[in-house]
Design brief:
Oligomer: single chain
Number of strands: 5
Number of helices: 24
CATH topology of the largest domain: Clc chloride channel
Order of helices and strands: HHHHHHHHHHHHHHHHHHHEHEEHHHEEH
Strand order of the largest sheet: 1-2-3
Distance between the termini: 46 Å
Largest sheet: 3 strands, mixed
CATH superfamily of the largest domain: Clc chloride channel
Strand content: under 5%
Shape: globular
CATH class of the largest domain: Mainly Alpha
Radius of gyration: 26 Å
CATH architecture of the largest domain: Orthogonal Bundle
Number of domains: 3
Amino acid sequence: MRARFTDGQRFLILCMIAGFLCGLAAVAFHLAIHYSFDFIWYSAEALGPWFWVVMPFIPALGGLAAGIILAKFAPGAVGSGIPQTKASYYNDFGIMSLKEAFWRFILGTLFIGTGNSLGREGPTVHMCAAIASKLGQAFGLAKARIQAMVPIGMGAGIAAAFNAPISALFFVFEELLDDFSTKALGGLVVAVVVAAATSRLLLGEDPVLTVPIHEDIATSWWMLVGIPLGAACGFIGHGFVTALLKLRGKAKESNVPRWLQPAAGGLAVGLLGTIAFYVTGLMGEPQHGVFSIGYGSLLTAFEGQLVFAVMLILFVFKFAATIINYATGGSGGLFSPTLFLGGMLGGIFGLGLVWLHNHTGLFHVENPSEVIGACVLLGMGALFSSIVRCPFTSVLIIFEMTRNYSLILPLMAGNIISYFIAAHLRKVPLYNALLLQDGVNLRKLPAYQGVQDYRNLPVSTIMTYDVVSVDATLTPVAALEKIESGKTHHGYPAVDGEHLVGMVMHHELEEMRDAKEERILKDILAVQNIIYATPDTSIRGAANLMIRDDVLQIPIVSPKNERRLLGVLTLHDIARQQNAASEQMGR
């Protein structure tokens, strides 16, 4: 009698299939963006002097097309896709559709391929996670197995996009999963290996960014530059995330239609990119400067061929362009821009080292261009660690790009310093902060180890954004009728338009109804002293507030207006996260 596959064997076979399909998708996405932008760039160059007139508008046209598609067909394909992947994994049992993968491919090709300053790796992650999830659904896997397919696709996507399989494993665990479970590791390794092999068969053995660094770099005093460089990246990375979130928040509140915002961002980036291209004088293959992914200019920086002014201009303009593109609702990721910015910053430090060698003799530098190239690498890793908050991934991804172990010590030092500075300045990492800005919190927060750590997080990470409120202009009887037609809760915020009037418990409404109370809730609650917190209040502080006043829930209001309701925090929200933290600690 023919033996049937066990559940574990079927899962591993699906992981292999997912790895192959994700590898193909990642390679196709890479080539689509590459050839699209090359066609546009060389077509614009062929126009001669008209290049300077046409080029600023091309990213705007790409943004306009992307904005229309996002508004009408694929609103979930905005941004990098990594926050959406995390939300699907933690909140929806990993259920994703192929429609998400399809639109990610189209939008990424349109937006990045027309020169906008975002990267392909984040969209690749979302696209591949959707492919793996749909594969699990098609084969009738249980919900837990479908959920497990999401990190499989995520790892396969990173492995194929960067041609860096080891980094892909660490990224999945650092960004998505809570611990290094051997159960999760087995299928993930299979998918990552197959995806990386597929990518190498189609694109070649070399990593996505081939770096000309010699293997025999000896440990030297100049490598201490990793310490100040790591510190600088920590503060600059924090500034980048803060500026991005603030501008994105303003864009969400803007009166400009959402479908038009990516076009406006694209026009700004087109102008920035054209100005930077003109000022720096970067001509010839593959000098694209601020436009698109920008690895060509990064390779030139590795070779020590960019002067201080050029690297500074590219850093400043790319910094602004990436924030504008992402904040205005473009479709693309932050990995490539982060590596670009870190590389330029590192190159500036490298030039400083060479200047010290030439003018003071404090450092002995035998090969200046090689030292500059090494500093470019150190900056790439440190800024990635600061912005993305995956310090081990940032070390390994540089190692896999260079196949060089010589810089591992300054790289580790700079990355850890950068990570801790950024983590100290902002408790919530970038991708979680983006979800919270969209009113989405994860039912179980990943990567927070320890009760002490979770208690210091802001309540925005666990509060309920989708609030059931009551109209304060109604009587208790009318309010109950409205509530009972939907979901009932222990208590409700009473609002007059957008103005918070107070909190009223369900049993209080019933008691008022029984007492034939005819006043409206606004008048009844006029004397109530509202106990509230803001989104930045720590979980510990909110819990102490609720215990002190013996309440089960409190409204969360705007820091600028205590009467503007943003959400509700309940003791259940706090208990749920406490249980998650206890599970992480093995309690």
